[in-house]
Specification:
- This protein has 497 residues and is α+β, with helices and mostly antiparallel strands.
- It has 19 helices and twelve strands.
- The protein has a five-stranded mixed β-sheet, sandwiched between helices.
- The protein is globular.
């Protein structure tokens, strides 16, 4: 009887031949999909270019952009862990992808294993009439009246956190990163704006713990076993939705009694209650407390990562553009004083046009959600000459679109959004930070208001200086784009002028 090593030696040439054949087929498949589009001519078997992506995501996407620029097609391709990917630089083609989110074209992905974590009923993955009905029911949450209610809540939490920052031992002399401080501020702001009085102090603390577990599992491998980050995230989502279900029930009861709305869930439930009374016997769609709580969680999640990134870039860019900072401080001083007990009103916020222009330019210059991944559900003719193959992961680059069309696009220039230039209208097709089409961000006005309030209060309360280190302002994908050092600053209270 032959020994095992001898059999293995005898089989080795056949194993190697089969492996070589599989690798060849994989390479042929990649080249067939690639055609003449810019991209690597050879990719590693199965892994593709995942090592360079994991090692330095910023450099990887810069290379993809450079390849897309190298020809007139406006996009490039690559291969990552068995998946063919398409990186789109062209604004026109990115808009085409955003406009064709439907079962027979593109499916929104956002996060690699989002469907497993959020579930199929998440608003991100809805399409067609069901999605339209849900967005229609959400509309009352972002009326001018609702937004003016949120403005007061936002300011109170922003001020509370900023005052706590100045009490930190590191303030005045030592630099500290703002990233996690802004994240915690945003989470508390969202809790108060969205569910207001329905979360007790104890519930808020539990909510924060559960949310952090969820955030840790967003980019983890989908291993649904005890002890793994993904499992912890799934359990956390269930608990968060349970908590929010109680908030929804309490709000419905309050709105049925005719009380005035005090937070987002109240504005939403006020409309739900009204529709339910009109329907009488038939319950309107998307109105069960559990489903509403799930969508409420979607709002909470959507307002965190990208918003935190924008706050950090605002501080970074204002520090490096003192002339812009001076104009912001002068404008804000005309409406609000750090010594005043009064808050900025909705009317005053609308008058702070330059500060809003700064906020819009921050979002353009450093679009926090730099790319919005989609999956091609079917073969899709992207251009007359190229069809994206079914199953490809498509990355429309919002970041790259922001540097197309605009006048001197690589310059940080808030004046481009002022009345005399209106580049957000002139180059609307390139300003994609809030998306396009059916899945365009429904809360974009709320997001801009939040950034304007933060900029106004931070610059009025503090003298601040970025702690400069090598590469501190370079982009880091987490997955929103952040300053690499987490935005380290030294802050001190400003002396009233």
């Amino acid at each position: 009887m032959e020994s095992v090593p001898a059999i293995f030696i005898w089989l080795t040439p056949y194993i190697l031949s089969v492996a070589a054949f599989v690798i060849l087929l994989e390479q042929i498949s990649y080249l067939k999909k690639k055609r003449s589009v810019p991209g690597p001519s050879f990719v590693l078997p199965f892994f593709g270019n995942v090592i360079s992506l994991a090692w330095n995501p910023t450099s990887f996407w810069e290379v993809q952009s450079a390849m897309a620029k190298s020809s007139d097609v406006g996009f490039s391709v690559n291969y990552i862990i068995g998946r063919f990917i398409v990186f789109i630089r062209s604004s026109e083609l990115s808009r085409k992808v955003f406009a064709n989110v439907r079962p027979d074209a593109f499916h929104l992905v956002v996060y690699p294993f989002g469907r497993k974590l959020f579930g199929e009923r998440n608003i991100l993955y809805m399409t067609g009439q069901e999605h339209k009905d849900l967005r229609r029911s959400i509309a009352p949450n972002f009326t001018p009246k609702a937004l003016s209610t949120y403005i007061e809540l936002q300011q109170r939490i922003i001020l509370k956190h900023m005052k706590s920052w100045i009490q930190m031992p590191e303030s005045n002399t030592k630099p500290f990163p703002l990233r996690f401080l802004c994240r915690d501020m945003n989470l508390e702001t969202s809790q108060n704006v969205f569910v207001g009085p329905y979360l007790s102090k104890e519930s808020q603390k539990r909510f924060e713990v559960e949310y952090n577990l969820f955030a840790a599992g967003l980019t983890a491998l989908p291993i649904n076993l005890p002890g793994f980050a993904f499992r912890n995230a799934k359990v956390a989502v269930s608990r968060l939705v349970e908590t929010l279900t109680v908030c929804v029930e309490d709000s419905k009861t309050k709105m049925k009694s005719g009380e005035a709305p005090a937070c987002l869930v109240d504005f939403w439930m006020q409309e739900i209650v009204r529709e339910a009374e009109q329907a009488r016997e038939k319950q309107p769609p998307h109105t069960s407390s559990v489903e509403l709580a799930g969508h409420l969680f979607d709002f909470l999640f959507a307002s965190q990562d990208a918003s935190t990134a924008s706050l950090l870039w605002a501080v970074t860019l204002l520090d490096s553009h003192p002339e812009v900072l001076a104009r912001v401080r002068k404008e804000v001083a005309g409406f609000w004083s750090t010594e005043s007990d009064k808050l900025i009103t909705a009317d005053q916020l609308r008058e702070m046009r330059y500060t809003e222009a700064v906020a819009k330019e921050v979002i353009r210059y450093r679009a926090p959600a730099a790319m919005i991944p989609h999956v091609a559900g079917e073969d899709f003719p992207l251009t007359d000459r190229y069809t994206i193959p079914k199953g490809a992961i498509v990355f429309p680059s919002v970041f790259e679109s922001s540097f197309q069309g605009f006048v001197d696009p690589y310059r940080f220039d808030p004046d481009r959004f002022m009345e005399d230039r209106q580049e957000d209208r002139v180059y609307k097709k390139n300003y994609l930070s809030f998306g396009v089409g059916a899945h365009q961000c429904v809360g974009q006005r709320y997001a801009i208001n939040h950034l304007v309030l933060f900029i106004g209060m931070f610059t009025s309360l503090f003298d601040f200086k970025r702690y400069r280190s090598d590469g501190c302002d370079e982009i880091e994908y987490l997955p929103a784009i952040y300053p690499r050092d987490g935005c380290k600053v030294v802050v001190s209270l400003r002396c009233p002028s």
